[in-house]
């Protein structure tokens, strides 16, 4: 049994659940109790606050976890990054009241900075030879300057709208973050095998993202020109239609290529073009 720690509610919750569901992990229990078994796959889900996930995985309370890179780096617990998951992308930045004239990092000398990420901030300030006072608070960090609790903040930024609504401006990006799949350092062979299966399933889901299955009909004399435009996993599938002189062509294209390719296909005489989403892709 592989125990997976995930955030019980918050910014990571929805996308983590979606990813697990697409990977075939369906929770038996609709009510979110702390520890939930999974039907048909040898895993169980442990719901925690995200702050507690790095330690839970490092100590073996959970075998693997899904957590923000910011939280993983901050907690400095020894686990392995097994996979970068590409969602919950954000950055950790320094921000100051927007009306201040700011030239460079030296502004932070002898200032007080409010944050929930003291270790990451401390290292960054030391690396840049800046001496500031760090004031640790666990939430609502952006409000700190306006209530006189600190001169500046160091916190998560994504769209930047929280900064704007608190009359702050971002002056230095310290690290980028995304959700990570982390694993305990000393998993048993049995657990490693379940983890490999989990990673295989996640990769199949992620590989299919942004890809479309395309089907079209074309006159036989244009088949060669058309397949030169379509990459396909190996090469496109070509099948004869009931109507002589025509073929059906199937392939896989990336969403990005789609609008570029579609005009060229039509110009070559392609008809009845169908574009279908792909749920999973196994190479
Ligand atoms: N605005 C955002 N955009 C993208 N990702 C974000 C954003 N805010 C936070 N994250 C990511 O999601 C993680 C969880 O954020 P959340 O705000 O839910 O944390 P929290 O309030 O500490 O939750 P918990 O109650 O579990 O301790 C963050 O550590 C970060 O990696
Ligand atoms: O740059 P933005 O897009 O505005 O996102 C940044 C904000 O998002 C997070 O808070 P969240 O909205 O999750 O609320 P919280 O403070 O309750 O965690 C984070 O703590 C920032 O405050
Ligand atoms: Mg938290």
Summarize the structure.
This protein has 283 residues and is of the alpha/beta class. Helices cover 27% and strands 32% of the residues. It folds into three domains: 2-87 and 178-207, Periplasmic binding protein-like II (D-Maltodextrin-Binding Protein, domain 2), CATH 3.40.190; 90-177, D-Maltodextrin-Binding Protein, domain 2; 210-277, Alpha-Beta Plaits (2-Layer Sandwich), CATH 3.30.70.
Give the key terms.
single chain, 283 residues, alpha/beta, D-Maltodextrin-Binding Protein, domain 2, Alpha-Beta Plaits, 6-stranded mixed beta sheet, 5-stranded mixed beta sheet, 15 strands, binds adenosine-5'-triphosphate, binds 1-O-pyrophosphono-5-O-phosphono-alpha-D-ribofuranose, binds magnesium ion
């Amino acid at each position: 049994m592989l125990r997976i720690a995930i955030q019980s509610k918050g910014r990571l919750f929805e996308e983590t659940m979606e990813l697990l569901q697409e990977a075939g992990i369906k929770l038996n229990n609709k009510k979110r109790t702390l520890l939930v078994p999974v039907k048909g796959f040898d895993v169980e889900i442990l719901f925690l606050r995200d702050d507690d996930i790095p330690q839970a995985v490092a100590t073996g309370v959970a075998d693997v976890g899904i957590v923000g890179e910011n939280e993983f780096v901050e907690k400095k617990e020894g686990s392995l990054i097994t996979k970068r998951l590409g969602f919950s992308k954000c950055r950790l930045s320094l921000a100051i009241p927007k009306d201040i004239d700011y030239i460079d990092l030296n502004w932070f000398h002898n200032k007080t900075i409010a944050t929930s990420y003291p270790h990451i901030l401390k290292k960054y300030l030391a690396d840049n030879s800046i001496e500031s006072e760090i004031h640790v608070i666990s939430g609502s960090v952006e409000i700190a300057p306006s209530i006189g609790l600190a001169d500046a903040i160091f916190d998560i930024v994504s769209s930047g709208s929280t900064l704007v609504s608190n009359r702050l401006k971002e002056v230095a990006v310290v690290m980028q973050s995304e959700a990570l799949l982390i694993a305990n350092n000393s998993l048993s062979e049995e657990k490693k095998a379940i983890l490999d299966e989990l990673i295989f399933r996640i990769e199949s889901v992620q590989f299919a993202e942004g890809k479309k299955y395309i089907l079209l009909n074309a006159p036989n004399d244009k088949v060669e020109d058309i397949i030169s435009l379509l990459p396909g996993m190996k090469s496109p599938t070509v099948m004869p239609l009931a109507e002589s002189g025509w073929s059906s062509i199937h392939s896989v294209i990336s969403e990005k290529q789609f609008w570029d390719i579609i005009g060229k296909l039509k110009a070559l005489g392609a008809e009845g073009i169908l574009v279908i989403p792909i749920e999973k892709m196994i190479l």
